[in-house]
Design a protein that fits this description.
The protein has 612 residues and is α/β, with parallel strands linked by helices. It has 5 domains: 103 residues, no CATH class; 88 residues, Orthogonal Bundle (Non-ribosomal Peptide Synthetase Peptidyl Carrier Protein, Chain A); 75 residues, no CATH class; 118 residues, Cathepsin D, subunit A, domain 1; 157 residues, HIV Type 1 Reverse Transcriptase, subunit A, domain 1 (HIV Type 1 Reverse Transcriptase, Chain A, domain 1), CATH 3.10.10. Helix content is 29%, strand content 15%. The chain contains 18 helices and 17 strands. The protein has a 6-stranded mixed β-sheet with strand order 8-11-10-6-7-12. A 5-stranded mixed β-sheet has the order 13-17-16-14-15. The protein has a two-stranded antiparallel ribbon with strand order 1-2.
Length: 612
C-alpha cells in the first residue's frame, strides 16, 4: 500500500507527563496494532516501519538511543532441550524496547492517587464511569483479591447517586452486584422521566398561560387551564377587539382622529399621553428623579428607631398633622429617628408633587443591616402651629406600613417635643480625688477613702497544677531614666502594704520579672510609671478556674425598673485582694534594690483568668 493511501493516525507525543506516559503508550500502541490488523499488515518488517512512521520524528530519535538490535532472534531459548533458535521479529523487538523505556515512569503511588480522584461527571453514564474506574485500577498494581474491592469502593465514593451510596453502605455488596444496582437505578430514572413527559403531553396535565406586558397586554397573569380550554386562545386578540392603552378606545385610531389622550396629563402619575383610567403606574409613580452626585455627607448612615417595634404595636400610632407647601402630611413623631421619612403613598397624594433628588444616604431600621429602599429626597417647609422649619424629607417605598416618621430634630424644631433636664438628670456626680472633703461621702467614710484598701473576708488562692515546674526568671534591666521612678513607686507600694520584703534565706519557689511601663500623669506633662509583671511562667503552672462571665443581655435584664445609677471607680482594685501565704511565695519578684519582694495582694491582668 502506498504511503499516500495510509489512513491518518495521531503521532505519539513522547513529551507527555512522565507519570502518564506508560498508560498513554499502551493505549497508543494498541490502537496502532488494530489499525495494522485492519490493513492486513502481518509482516514484522512492515509493522516495524509502520511503528516508526506513525510514531513520529521524536519517537524515531528515541529509537536511535535505545540499546536494542532488531536482528536478534525473538523467542530464542538456548537452555531448552532441544534449543529453540527463535525467529527474527523487528517489530516485537522495537515495541518491547520502547515499553521497557517507558516502564520506569510508572509510579504506583501516583497511579493510586489518580484512581482515588475519579468522580462521576455530570451526565456521565454508569457504564462509562465504571470503565474509567477499571482503566485506572489496571495501573495501580492491586492484588487479585483486592482489585474488585478497590473498584467497588471507588465507585461508591465517586458516584453521583446518593441512593446507590446508601445502598452500598447498608449492604455488603460485591462489585458485580453494585454495578447491576447502579445500572438498574439509572435505567429506572430515565424511564420515569420519559413516562412523565408522555403524561404531560397527553392532555391530563395543566397548561399554564403566561401573559407578559406587551403591545396587546398590560397585566402579568399566570392561569392554569386544561388543554381543551386553551385550544381556542390566540396570542393576540382580534383586530376588532383591540383597545388603546392610552385612552381606552378602539385601536388603531383613524388618521383624521388621533388618540384623545395625546398631550394630556394623567391625574394619578402626572405623566403625559394617557388617561388616569389607563394608568399603569398607579399611586406609586413618582416625578422625574434628578441625578445628583452624592457628597461626603450623603455617605453617612442614618438610623430609624421606630421600625423595630412597628409589628408589635397594638395601639394606633400617635399621628400629628403637619402643614407643608404641598399639602398636609400625617407624621408619627419619633425621637429615635435621625431623619424624616415619608412613605411613597403619602408622597403621591401631595399637590403639587415635589420633585425628588436622588440621594446616597443609607437609612437603616433599628437592629437591621439592610438599607431601606430610598426613592429620593426633597427639602420641605414644615409648619405646626406657629413653628416653621426647613427639613430634608426622604421618600421610601412601602415604608413602615404607610406611617411616615418625623425626625428628632424636626420634632424639637416644631415644638412637638421638649427635653427637660432636672438638676441631676444626665449628670455624673464625681467624688473629688485626693481625699478632698468637698463631698459628704468622703468625710463620712474617711477610713475607706484614703490609701489602698484591702478585702477583710477574702483570701485569694492560686491553685497549682500537678507536676508544676517553677521558674526563677532573670532580674529585669530597668532603663536608666525610669530607675528612680520605679524605685520610688515600689517603695510607695511597699509602704502601702501592697508589697512586702522577702527574707534572704527564704526558699522561694518561683520568681517573676518586673516590667515597668511608662504612663502619663493626669494634669501634668511628666511621665510616671506603672509596675507590672511577666506572669507567663506562673500562669502555665496554675490550674484553670472556670468562670461564666455574664453577657450584656443578662446585665440589662438585671437593670429592669432601675432608676438611680452610680458609677464607682475602684482604684487599684487588684491590690485590694489579698493572697494566702502559699500564693504569696509564687508572686515573688526582683526589686530594683538589694532585696527581693513578693506581692501579698493579687496583681496583673494575666492573673485575672485565675482569680475571677
Amino acid at each position: 500500500m502506498a504511503a499516500g493511501m495510509l489512513p491518518s493516525y495521531p503521532v505519539f507525543d513522547t513529551d507527555e507527563e512522565l507519570s502518564s506516559l506508560p498508560q498513554k503508550w499502551a493505549k497508543w500502541i494498541s490502537g496502532l496494532e488494530d489499525l495494522m490488523s485492519s490493513l492486513a499488515i502481518n509482516d514484522h518488517q512492515r509493522m516495524w516501519s509502520m511503528l516508526r512512521f506513525y510514531g513520529g520524528e521524536k519517537l524515531r530519535e528515541l529509537e536511535t538511543q535505545l540499546a536494542y538490535n532488531k536482528e536478534d532472534p525473538y523467542g530464542a531459548d538456548p537452555a531448552a532441550v532441544p534449543p529453540v533458535p527463535g525467529t527474527p521479529n523487528h517489530y516485537r523487538r522495537l515495541k518491547e524496547s520502547l515499553t521497557t523505556h517507558f516502564a520506569p515512569c510508572v509510579n504506583e503511588v501516583y497511579s493510586r492517587f489518580r484512581f482515588r480522584s475519579i468522580n462521576q461527571d455530570e451526565g456521565e453514564s454508569v457504564d462509562a464511569f465504571v470503565t474509567k474506574v477499571r482503566s485506572e485500577a489496571s495501573h495501580c498494581n492491586f492484588s487479585q483479591d483486592e482489585h474488585d474491592k478497590q473498584m467497588r469502593d471507588q465507585i461508591v465514593f465517586g458516584c453521583r447517586s446518593g441512593k446507590i451510596r446508601r445502598k452500598a453502605l447498608a449492604e455488603d455488596l460485591t462489585l458485580h452486584r453494585l454495578i447491576q444496582i447502579a445500572r438498574a437505578e439509572e435505567t429506572a430514572k430515565a424511564n420515569a422521566l420519559e413516562m412523565e413527559r408522555v403524561n404531560d403531553s397527553d392532555g391530563t396535565a395543566d397548561v399554564f398561560k403566561l401573559s407578559r406586558p406587551g403591545k396587546y397586554s398590560n397585566k402579568l397573569s399566570l392561569t392554569a387551564k386544561r388543554d381543551d380550554e386553551t385550544s381556542g386562545l390566540h396570542p393576540n386578540p382580534p383586530v376588532s377587539e383591540r383597545k388603546c392603552f392610552n385612552c381606552g378606545g378602539p385601536f388603531p385610531h383613524s388618521s383624521n382622529k388621533p388618540c384623545p389622550a395625546k398631550g394630556k396629563t394623567c391625574n394619578k402619575c402626572s405623566k403625559l399621553n394617557h388617561f388616569a383610567s389607563q394608568c399603569r403606574g398607579g399611586k406609586k409613580a413618582l416625578n422625574v428623579v434628578l441625578e445628583q452626585m452624592p457628597d461626603d455627607n450623603d455617605q453617612m448612615l442614618s438610623f430609624l428607631g421606630e421600625i423595630r417595634h412597628v409589628n408589635a404595636l397594638s395601639a394606633p400610632a400617635h399621628l400629628v398633622t403637619v402643614h407643608s407647601n404641598e399639602g398636609e402630611i400625617r407624621f408619627n413623631p419619633d425621637t429615635g429617628a435621625d431623619v424624616t421619612v415619608l412613605d411613597s403613598d403619602s408622597h403621591s397624594k401631595l399637590r403639587p408633587k415635589p420633585q425628588l433628588t436622588k440621594s446616597g444616604v443609607k437609612l437603616l431600621a433599628y437592629g437591621s443591616k439592610k438599607p431601606l429602599n430610598i426613592l429620593g429626597s426633597y427639602v420641605a417647609t414644615l409648619q405646626f402651629n406657629d413653628k416653621k422649619i426647613r427639613e430634608t424629607v426622604y421618600v421610601s417605598h412601602n415604608f413602615n406600613r404607610g406611617i411616615s416618621l418625623l425626625s428628632r430634630r424636626a420634632c424639637q424644631g416644631l415644638g412637638l417635643i421638649t427635653l427637660h433636664y432636672g438638676p441631676h438628670i444626665g449628670q455624673i456626680r464625681k467624688l473629688k480625688p485626693d481625699g478632698s472633703n468637698s463631698h459628704p461621702l468622703l468625710s463620712t467614710f474617711q477610713d475607706i477613702c484614703k490609701g489602698v484598701g484591702c478585702h477583710k473576708d477574702l483570701e485569694i488562692s492560686l491553685p497549682l497544677r500537678e507536676g508544676a515546674k517553677h521558674v526563677v526568671a532573670a532580674p529585669s534591666r530597668i532603663p536608666i531614666n525610669l530607675y528612680p521612678k520605679v524605685k520610688a513607686e515600689i517603695e510607695r507600694l511597699e509602704a502601702e502594704g501592697v508589697f512586702e520584703s522577702v527574707p534572704v534565706d527564704d526558699n522561694t519557689q518561683s520568681i517573676s520579672r518586673l516590667v515597668p511601663v511608662p504612663k502619663p500623669i493626669e494634669g501634668s506633662d511628666e511621665v510616671g510609671v506603672r509596675i507590672t509583671f511577666d506572669w507567663r511562667s506562673l500562669n502555665e503552672n496554675l490550674d484553670q478556674v472556670h468562670h461564666s462571665t455574664p453577657t450584656i443581655e443578662e446585665l440589662k435584664a438585671r437593670l429592669i425598673n432601675a432608676k438611680v445609677f452610680s458609677q464607682v471607680d475602684m482604684k487599684d482594685a487588684f491590690y485590694q485582694l489579698p493572697l494566702d501565704e502559699e500564693s504569696k511565695r509564687l508572686t515573688t519578684f526582683y526589686s530594683v534594690g538589694p532585696k527581693t519582694l513578693h506581692s501579698p495582694h493579687s496583681r496583673g491582668s494575666s492573673i485575672i483568668s485565675h482569680l475571677s
